[in-house]
Structure to design on (119 residues):
């Protein structure tokens, strides 16, 4: 939950309102219920970061108790997500560019507005 909140705020950049917790929770609920591709990939990125951390710690984790993360551990995971975010976002941009090229039937480098809005 905390990691997804961090990524959501990080993605918003300077537009993020860091004090409006109710608005933030509402935005997250809306994103979850719309089941958008960008929300799914954001959740996947967060889960990958968490699973990577857990895998790297597998020799110290007790599999018979629920996993709890200290603030220090959550901070460590956030730092790893921040370092990997640029590569992840770049892959997302390349995917979007590829999809836009697919809409350009004339190979002119332009996408008709009606095709863009129909997506």
């Amino acid at each position: 939950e905390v990691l997804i909140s961090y990524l959501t705020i990080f993605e918003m950049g300077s537009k993020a309102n860091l004090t409006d917790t109710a608005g933030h929770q509402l935005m997250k609920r809306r994103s979850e219920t719309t089941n958008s591709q960008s929300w799914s990939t954001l959740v996947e990125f967060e889960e990958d970061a968490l699973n990577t951390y857990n895998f790297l710690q597998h020799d110290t984790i007790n599999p018979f108790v629920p996993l709890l993360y200290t603030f220090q551990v959550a901070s460590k995971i956030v730092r790893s997500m921040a370092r990997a975010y640029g590569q992840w976002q770049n892959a997302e941009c390349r995917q979007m560019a590829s999809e836009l090229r697919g809409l350009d039937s004339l190979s002119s480098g332009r996408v008709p507005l009606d095709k863009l809005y129909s997506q």
Summary: The chain has five helices and no strands. The radius of gyration is 18 Å. The chain has a mean pLDDT of 84.
